[in-house]
Amino acid sequence: MAQPGNNAVGVDNTSRRKFDREEYLERARQREQKELDRAKAKSKGPPVQRKPLKHRDYEVDLGSRLGKTQVVTPIAPLSQQAGYYCPVCECVVKDSANYLDHINGKKHQRALGMSMRVERASLEQVQQRFDVLKKRKDTGSFTEQDFDDRILKQQQEEEERKRQRRERKKEKKKEKATEEEIEVDPDVAAMMGFGGFGSSKK
Ligand SMILES: [Zn+2]
Questions:
Q1: Annotated region Disordered: where (predicted)?
Q2: Cα–Cα distance list, 194 to 108, 177, 190, 200 (Å)
Q3: How many angstroms separate the alpha carbon of residue 122 from the centre of ligand 1?
Q4: Contact (CB, 8 A) for 60 and 80
Q5: What is the C-alpha to C-alpha distance for residues 168 and 146, in angstroms, rounded to an integer?
Q6: pLDDT of the residue at 180
Q7: What is the pLDDT averaged over residues 185-202?
Q8: Measured distance CA(86)–CA(105) in Å, rounded
Q9: How confident is the model at residue 179 (pLDDT cuts 50, 70, 90)?
Q10: CB-CB neighbours of 98 under 10 Å
Q11: Bridge partners for 92 per DSSP
Q12: What are phi and psi of 84, to 5 degrees?
């Protein structure tokens, strides 16, 4: 009555599953290959040799944006957001202390191609450094003459600033005057007539 082949299929479905050795062996091989590839991509050849730490050759700018008002939107580029922007790592740090920590930190130095190791200084280098510091100390002591010079310079700068402010005010007034030119027109004409009179008197 019932065909043996059909019967076998029906029985197989309800009994224990059979382990297909070949299929799973193939799967294992593929997985191993994948892991190998991933490891290769991660290592990227020999380890990178980084330079030892060097000290900064520029001044850290912490105060240039102090006391300024700026509109901050979440869609603005990172460099114009609130806080200190690091162009090397393209990140924003929220305050000056953290900014200093960041630019002295491992991630930032790594991006600049430096390791955190400090070069061992030779005897000559230490002696040279002492010489440089000694010289700096000598020139650092200033006389009363220097002090007077500095005060004079500051006064001159202050005067210059005042002058510029006055000029700006004048220009603003002028702009206002040109805007109201139509109203002022008769007066200007009278003044010009007066001027003409004055010059003829000479
Ligand atoms: Zn950085």
A1: 1-52, 145-202
A2: 73, 20, 6, 10
A3: 30
A4: no
A5: 33
A6: 63
A7: 49
A8: 12
A9: low
A10: 13
A11: 85
A12: -105, 125
| CA 90 to ligand 1 center in whole angstroms | 7
Mean pLDDT computed over 41-62: 82
How far, in Å, from the CA of 107 to the mean position of ligand 1? 7
DSSP state of 87: T
* 70: its two tokens: 């700026």
Residue 41's pLDDT is 82
Helix (H, G, I), strand (E, B) or coil at 134: helix
Interatomic CA distance for residues 115 and 47, integer angstroms: 12
Distance 116 CA to ligand 1 centre (A): 14
CA of 30 to the centre of ligand 1 (A): 40
Length of the chain as a residue count: 202
Residue given tokens 């790594």 in the structure block: 110
Pull the structure tokens for residue 160.
């210059």
